[in-house]
Amino acid sequence: MKQRLVIGNWKMNGSLADNTLWAANFRHQLKSCALTGVEIGICPPFPYLSSMRPMLPSSIRLGAQDVSSECIGAFTGEVSINMLKELQCHYVIVGHSERRARMRETDATIAKKFKLVSLAGLTPVLCVGETQQERQQGETESVIIRQIQAVIDACGAGSLRGGVIAYEPVWAIGTGVSAELGDIRTTHALIREQLSANGLGPDDVALLYGGSLKPGNSEEIFSLPNVDGGLIGGASLKAGEFLDICLAARGTPHNRVTDIAQKYDN
Ligand code: 13P
Prior knowledge:
The chain is of the alpha/beta class. It has a single domain (about 5-65, about 75-265), classed as Aldolase class I (TIM Barrel, Alpha-Beta Barrel). Helices cover about 40% and strands about 15% of the residues. It has eleven helices and eight strands. It has an eight-stranded parallel beta barrel with strand order 1-2-3-4-5-6-7-8, surrounded by six helices. Helix 5 crosses helix 7, helix 7 (about 140-155) runs parallel beside helix 8 (about 180-195) and helix 9 (about 215-220) runs parallel beside helix 10. It is globular and about 45 Å long. The model has no long low-confidence stretch (mean pLDDT about 95). The structure holds 1,3-dihydroxyacetonephosphate. 1,3-dihydroxyacetonephosphate (13P) binds next to strand 8.
């Protein structure tokens, strides 16, 4: 079985004090479980990237939540791909639905970001997903295909090799209600088909699910075909819950960290 991948997206949460506690709890709880066969990434907000690196075990990879579509220059408030590389980021999330909606990021801008990340040798995590309205109008398939095709058209299918696509239905994010297993299965199969039509096999691109993933539902979601792991928002803010999700990704029965080490959790 190929190595599973679990990435925590902290969004605009945390503080120096919170992050220090999170890292201490994570390291402590990690000692009580044999966590092998799972690749783990953490994406804190930009200002905390450099302070998080030495606090995390070296096996945990650092990621950024976004990147500028420009390389250098007069772009106030933006963060370039070279800066992220210098800060030892491995992953860069592009096209998160919160940025598509709030910052009006277009497929074209997202494809530009994707290209910069892959040219820099970092691993892009392309987020795709339909809104509630698009779902109700029966547009889920066409939205997902369009969002992925925009990257293929702009960057070439080869740029997706070694990359990550996260299917995050917008209506499932932060709601506590994840997508139905059948919906995740169908959409992940659709994405695999699209990738395969572009010459990309199952080992070329990791497919993650995101949207209200938590310790209670991660095992069944990770057992679905074509699901290689998860992109976790809210549940990644608690070290114990995040670790439980990472343990579920191993695919073997385990004792919950949150049951045996509750008192250490932040
Ligand atoms: P939640 O896990 O909080 O639903 O967020 C998912 C997400 O948006 C990760 O990028």
